[in-house]
Amino acid sequence: MVLNKTHILLILFFGLVVAGVVIKSNNKNNLNKKEEINYNNIKSDYSATRTIKQDDELITIDFSQCTQDRVRIDVGFGSTTIVIGGKKGSNCKVNYGGEIENPNWDGSLPFICEVPVSLGKVSFTKNNYGINFSPIENYCIKK
């Protein structure tokens, strides 16, 4: 069989498509392998330079600082807990979770994040149901 330019280009094209699918699949698998931090051992940082700061309806996290911290933020119908686990390479390890009107909440923090420290300070809005973490949702998975 003789291959002409069109055959070769089609073979290359399909090869690149398959390679792209494999790479995308591997990236998705890496996202699902985020390390959960042992957030039970992390205490609140009450220093003036803490990583998590609350100012009324705004919560600001300094991902570039990324020192261990824990904070519980009360909201209208429940609470949200955020735990900073420290740096892992060029990422900041974060777990968060919360409850809405649930006195039996077990304290689990089902969201596991690895946020690039290059984001620096990011502010999140607070509402009656929790914290809006949409600015970092692409760096998080739910276990």
Automatic annotation (TrEMBL):
Keywords annotated in UniProt: Membrane, Transmembrane, Transmembrane helix
Domain of life according to the entry: Bacteria
Transmembrane intervals: 6-23
Descriptive protein name: Uncharacterized protein
